[in-house]
Specification:
The chain has about 1050 residues and is mainly β. The protein is built from nine helices and 71 strands. The protein is globular.
């Protein structure tokens, strides 16, 4: 018969007053050798693991040991730092021996508990398996069934527009978050569960959701980053009514933040975890929070009492009043850390319940190195057949074109991933980049709404867990938006100029309505200040505003309406004129009007004061005139100067007529493969907009005439696009390029919709803003698309300087304190090189910056460490420690079969090996008969030499393209002679000049750093060798991994 003890309420408490082992506590209180009595009396168990759990969760234990007597107690760590001293039960009075007595006893059972002992941190569905093991505690009379579930975070469906809409995983179960469930996967058959760990059913990442983004389809749907991480839940229970109990755990990811000029420091705000309890019927009373490091070692544990578990539902690892994690022990080289939360009912609950939850699919997302991978392919154009003219490559159907190019890109990605030189380590970021203009289509671009189809399709590949530590820069995609009236049915441009007029609707909330007077006085909440030109939409009619006043509360306004509105508190609508003429001034040679309209911010006026090539017009009634001047006055008001004196304009509603044009978008899509679930360290993806439009970006009359293209009036910005042959090209709204409208100039502040903004900041915080500085998983990238690099877009933002566009002159930096500095500079381009613009990464030092250029025109790429070395753009291997000229010979690759020069290095995929050729270094010469009046070239049949006078030699000026006599400088400009245009196979001589004299590069060396060597490739992407889509087929190159520079802030 087991011992019978007195009630614990009648016992003496033994307080734990200082750090000591359990054995020492028992010895000093006369309980030597009585561990079993103490454990049974206090916690109903003799099992060492269950004793240690009680010590941790109740008494306070700094260090549990296999033998509980050696476990180190600490009263500061326990909610109840004492034990009850076991006292044998004695009757209040002696029991008569000749009488039957009934003694009622209550057997104490241990609390049920479950802990996860093994859980795969990362696996690759569907081939990999998430392996999990658990250990049960307690007795079968309290809990005897085990459920296994996997829960998603942020589960959602996708709207038709691609947005996320929160939803349940099971259409029949409200509040469901599980993707995978196995009920009663284990049932306890004996009095006690096994003491050894039990294995959970295999899970290969499959989803059994009945709706939403991971709805099971066809042969199976598998997890992706969108709902990561995935929490494994083990439920141990007695009563089937508890089979919906769960813990919803927030993702936990300690991060380090950059510090100006110093090593990153631990971000204390990331050192907490929170949770929600659902469906437990109030049974969960206590538990533990346990932290594992990357190697699955327990590095921290702490008790959770009922108040913290059920009320606070949050643990602050550095601030908890009872137990904190040593900040110095939290190390980046031990990332990722994972939290396990255990919770259970207490010893007094007969129908017990215990839960344990812990995440899988967790990565460190902490990068020490980066490895560049280039997809070198040449988008382009072809001669129009029949001519004349040039056509864009691709398919006329934008959907087909996007699909085809996405399929080729996916092939390139898969080939890159299969390269044996790709570094597999988690702390190496694999950065894959393609060139500018990769996506554009036969129309010169896609309707702008189609651009997002690119990222949607590519995510089908990049969402795979195999790309967890990859970053993709998919070159650029060209979109267009016609600025003209569109057909209501087809959406096609009609050729009619776009008119901005009429009234727009503004939503507001009516807070109070004073209807006591002749005119109603309304107090409303609005997102921006109203004007007296607005109207209130009342019952059956619109009411003009007599007066507008502010209140003491920001965002609230008092409106006096003309008459009785009939409105009651609640949502209301106001009508805002799109354009309203406030005043008209006829005193000058041209009419000036003050117009209230935000549309005026888009009117382009050349900084020189010249008339714009394509002017806007102001119209009211039958009166109309061109706008030649536009000056902002603030608060949405503009002073417009018309081209003529027009007496027909008066105060009132007006229309602004926009010239026919096409806004072009050159967008680089950036995607992280399986990004971190928390955005404190940056974005999951981004769109970076090219700022400046180059003459060669589009087919048109000025494609090769930079002077005409950059005419400050915008006259030269004519392109062929979406079937039009003479469209005025507008840069993306916000650009500072010509003929830009509403430019976001670096460093300016603005108020837009009554909200202060940093207009012109290059820091891309949302991923959609177009800015060129993007932070993804703690790595800050500066991205300049082709001409943006030559225009020093990044350098101007960080350091200021002379603006390359109007208004010219000094420009202050746009960066402010705390802005991240660029660690890696990326230049996807078509006709740009690293040395043609300024670098904006760390130059020199122990951890210099990195720069990577993938150029479509050259079908080549270059990666460099910006260590201060001088180098040549055309010869990446040329390095020097001081300035000078490149001493390498110019060389090209010639394919005999194609009968043309190849931009890409290596063999022609169609005809095999190519020829290495030199360019002739002799000057171009033309020889003419020396007889006066004869212009025959030599040899002259009419005047053989000799006896005729010696022939005359002429060079061609490299600078002005005019001839001048051999031996003299150019008589027109003094320029040098142009070189011979011939090329010849290396090892032979030019057909016109001997001996061989290859052209020297002689390009000035620029401080841009040493080139990074390739370790893999070129690997041909066979699907890209389609002349209908690409001028030259592509290949993949893999560079050696490089140390990332230390994160820093401005």
């Amino acid at each position: 018969m087991p011992p019978v003890f007195a009630r614990r309420s009648d016992s003496n408490k033994i307080d734990v007053t200082h750090r000591q082992t359990l054995g020492e506590l028992l010895d000093t209180n006369g309980l030597t050798g009585r561990l079993n009595d103490v454990a049974l009396y206090n916690w109903g168990t003799l099992v060492p693991a269950e004793i240690n759990r009680a010590l941790i969760e109740l008494v306070g234990c700094a260090r549990p040991e296999t033998d509980p007597l050696a476990s180190l107690l600490d009263p500061a760590l326990g909610p109840k730092p004492f034990i009850h001293k076991p006292v044998p039960w004695k009757p209040a009075a002696p029991l008569a021996l000749d009488t039957a007595h009934t003694v009622q006893v209550r057997r104490r059972f241990p609390a049920p508990a479950v802990s996860i002992r093994k859980l795969t941190r990362w696996f690759l569905p569907p081939s990999g398996t998430c392996e999990a093991e658990y250990v049960l505690e307690g007795v079968a009379s309290s809990a005897d069934k085990v459920d296994f579930e996997v829960h998603a975070h942020g589960y959602h469906s996708l709207s038709p527009q691609g947005g996320q809409v929160a939803c349940d995983t099971d259409a029949t179960e409200g509040g469901s978050t599980h993707l995978f469930r196995r009920r009663k996967c284990y049932e306890v058959a004996d009095r006690r569960p096994p003491a050894v760990a039990q294995k959970l059913p295999d899970w290969k990442g499959e989803s059994e959701a009945t709706q939403g983004v991971l709805k099971r389809e066809g042969t199976g749907t598998f997890i992706h980053h969108g709902c990561a991480p995935y929490d494994v839940l083990v439920r141990y229970y007695k009563d089937d009514r508890d089979n919906a109990a769960k813990i919803l755990l927030t993702p936990f990811a300690p991060r380090w933040k950059p510090v100006k000029g110093a090593d990153p420091e631990l971000d204390e705000d990331t050192l907490s975890v929170s949770w929600e309890l659902q469906g437990d019927h109030g049974k969960l009373k206590r538990g533990q929070v346990v932290v594992w490091d990357k190697d699955d070692n327990v590095v921290f544990f702490a008790p959770l009492d009922e108040q913290q578990l059920r009320t606070r539902k949050r643990y602050e690892f550095l601030k908890d009043a009872r137990k904190t994690w040593d900040k110095a022990a939290i190390r980046r080289d031990q990332l990722p850390y994972r939290v396990q939360l255990q919770a259970h009912s207490d010893e007094d609950e007969p129908l017990g319940l215990a839960l344990a939850v812990m995440p899988t699919q967790v990565r460190a997302f902490d990068y020490a190195q980066v490895q560049f991978i280039a997809f070198n392919v040449k988008p382009g154009t072809k001669a129009r057949v029949p001519g004349p003219g040039i056509d864009y490559l691709g398919d006329a159907d934008p959907d087909v074109d996007i699909q085809t190019r996405c399929d080729v890109m996916k092939d390139a990605i898969r080939l890159a991933a299969a390269d044996g030189h790709i570094r597999p380590e988690e702390n190496v970021l694999k950065l894959f980049m393609a060139p500018e203009f990769y996506f554009r289509g036969k129309d010169g671009g896609y309707p702008v709404e189609k651009l997002w189809d690119v990222t949607r399709q590519l995510r089908q590949e990049t969402d795979k867990p195999e790309y967890a530590d990859w970053l993709f820069v998919f070159g650029s995609a060209i979109g267009y938006l016609p600025h003209e009236e569109l057909d209501a049915v087809t959406g096609a441009p009609t050729g009619t100029p776009l008119t901005h007029g009429g009234e727009g609707q503004v939503h507001a909330v009516l807070l109070e309505a004073n209807t006591s007077g002749v005119d109603d006085v309304l107090k409303v909440a609005l997102s921006r200040p109203p004007e007296t030109t607005w109207k209130v939409r009342g019952i059956g009619q619109n009411h003009a505003l007599k007066a507008v006043a502010t209140t003491l509360t920001p965002g609230e306004y008092q409106l006096t309406v003309d008459g009785k509105s009939g409105l009651v508190p609640g949502p209301i609508a106001l009508s805002e004129p799109v354009a309203w003429i406030d005043t008209v001034d006829q005193t000058g040679p041209c009419t000036e009007v003050v117009v209230n309209s935000r549309v005026c911010s888009r009117i382009f006026i050349p900084s020189s004061g010249a008339a714009p090539a394509a002017p806007w017009k102001l119209r009211t009634g039958s009166e109309e005139d061109d706008i030649k001047g536009c000056v902002p006055l603030g608060a949405g008001r503009y002073c417009l100067t018309l081209a003529n004196k027009k007496v027909g304009f008066a105060s009132g509603s007006a229309e602004l007529v926009e010239p026919r044009s096409t806004e072009v978008f050159n967008v680089v899509m950036v995607q992280k493969g399986w990004p971190a679930p928390l955005l404190s360290q940056g974005l999951k993806g981004a769109a970076v907009y090219k700022e400046y439009v180059s003459a060669i970006d589009f087919v048109g009359p000025n494609s090769h005439n930079a002077n005409a293209w950059f005419d400050p009036t915008g006259l030269g910005r004519r392109i062929e696009i979406h079937g039009g042959t003479d469209r005025l090209a507008l840069p993306t709204e916000g650009s500072t390029d010509v003929p830009a409208a509403s430019p976001n100039r670096v460093g300016l502040g603005a108020t837009w919709l009554n909200r202060p903004n940093r207009v012109g900041s290059e820091i891309n915080l949302s991923g959609d803003g177009g800015g060129s500085v993007v932070t993804v998983d703690g790595v800050t990238l500066g991205l300049e698309v082709c001409l943006d690099h030559a225009m020093n877009r990044l350098d101007l933002f960080y350091h200021g300087g002379n603006s390359p566009v109007p208004p010219f002159g000094p420009q202050p930096p746009g960066a402010v304190a705390g802005d991240p500095r660029v660690q890696v500079q990326l230049i996807p381009s078509f006709g740009m090189s690293i040395g043609r613009g300024k670098l904006c990464t760390w130059i020199g030092g122990p951890r210099p910056g990195l720069v990577f250029n993938v150029d479509g025109q050259r079908c080549a790429s270059v990666a460099r460490v910006t260590d201060g070395a001088y180098a040549c753009d055309d010869h990446p291997a040329m390095h020097a420690t001081v300035p000078g000229l490149c001493t390498q010979d110019k060389e090209l690759r010639w394919c005999v079969g194609c009968n043309k020069t190849r931009s890409a290095p290596g063999d022609c995929p169609t005809h095999g090996p190519t020829e290495a050729r030199h360019l002739c270094g002799y000057a171009w010469q033309r020889w003419q008969c020396g007889v006066v009046g004869c212009t025959n070239t030599m040899p002259c049949i009419a005047h053989p030499y000799p006896p005729a006078p010696p022939p005359l030699g002429f060079n061609w000026c490299l600078k002005c393209s005019k001839e001048f006599p051999v031996g003299l400088p150019c008589s027109t400009c003094g320029g040098p002679p142009a070189p011979c245009p011939e090329s010849y196979r290396v090892g032979t001589t030019c057909s016109k000049h001997t001996p061989a004299l290859p052209q020297r590069c002689n390009a000035p060396l620029v401080s841009m750093g040493q080139s990074i060597a390739t370790v893999g490739g070129p690997t041909q992407v066979n699907s890209s060798h389609d002349p209908a889509f690409f001028d030259e087929g592509g290949h993949v190159l893999v560079y050696s991994a490089q140390v990332l520079p230390r994160p820093d802030v401005f």
